[in-house]
Each structure stands twice: as structure tokens, then as C-alpha cells.
Amino acid sequence: KQEVTQIPAALSVPEGENLVLNCSFTDSAIYNLQWFRQDPGKGLTSLLLIQSSQREQTSGRLNASLDKSSGRSTLYIAASQPGDSATYLCAVSPDSSYKLIFGSGTRLLVRP
Amino acid sequence: DTEVTQTPKHLVMGMTNKKSLKCEQHMGHRAMYWYKQKAKKPPELMFVYSYEKLSINESVPSRFSPECPNSSLLNLHLHALQPEDSALYLCASSLQGGELFFGEGSRLTVL
Fold it and tell me: What's the mean pLDDT in B40-69?
């Protein structure tokens, strides 16, 4: 059974720091992996989608990598800003069946 | 337009009430989803519709009744809910195997 883990559960950094959020999964046979951002009381915003055949995806200051063999993905945020403060969730799709398995998220606080 | 629109944003209902949550998307996505999210927890999948047919029902109690009237609309009918059903209800849509787009959610409180 696929399990997705995100460590740390919470992270506090000063503004301007580059940071890495981690996501690990137990079964390397995945279809794709998606990173989301969620602000308190709001819906999820899709940040990046990595297909199983891809190694990384980039959008602005965000870069997500995927290493299926080791069951890991990282989300790199460059030059963090207070507006980046949110909960970041990764989710794995085991196949094309529409199911997503979510990690518990990392709550990020970027201090001015 | 990469928007999923949910109404109402907030809903308070008694345990004997009947209400509905609504979701709309115009991205041409043929998969639509209902998720339930409790505080400080990840979303939990409830239902998936694919091409307007119910594809996945994650053993959700019958007091939650989904409906997909057409490819752009998704409803969740609520009846005889319990206080523990209070949560944020999220709608999402996608192409098959593609990126999920979520709405802002409907915050439900059951008294």
C-alpha cells in the first residue's frame, strides 16, 4: 500500500533563504506526483506536476525533482518570501485511476 | 480559465436539513472530484466522476449523495448529516491522469 510522508511537519525560515521541502513515498511505481500549496481555510493550488518519466519541473522560483528509484521528491523554493508562507502538500498518483495519495503536508512560515 | 468555482463558500445546517454544495468548471475536464478535509489533515477522496459517470465512491455514507448533471457541473447533496461531518469540502477537476485543479472549498458546519 502506497504511503506518502512529508518531513518536516513545520518549518520556519527567515526571508530570502533558499529551502527544500521533502516528500517520500513507499512504492516507486507511480504515475505522477503533484505539489500543492494551501493557504489557511482555502483550497489547494497546484504548483507543479511531474510525470513518472520526468526528473524535474520548474515554475518561477520553484523547482520540483523526482527520484522514483529512491521514492523521493523535493520542492526547492528559491529566495523565499513571506507570501510563500502556507502548507505545502505532495500527492502521488499510483496509476491513471484518478486517485491521489496525499502526504500530511509541511507548514512553512517565512519570517520578514 | 483554470478555475473551479464552488458555492456556497460557507454553509451552516442542522442535522435534519437538506442542502447542496455546487461546483462548476469550464476547462473541458471530464473528471470531477469531491474531497473532504478536516483541520490540519490532508484532503480525503470521497467521489470521482469520469465522463459524468460515478467512477469512485470511497465508501462514503449515504447521507452524502453526489450528482453530475453535465460535464461542467458537480453537486453534493447533503441530508441528515452529523456534527462530525463538519469540514471543508473541496471540488476538483482534471483531465485523466493530469493535473488536479481545486476550488476554494465550501466550509460546512453541522449543528
Answer: 94
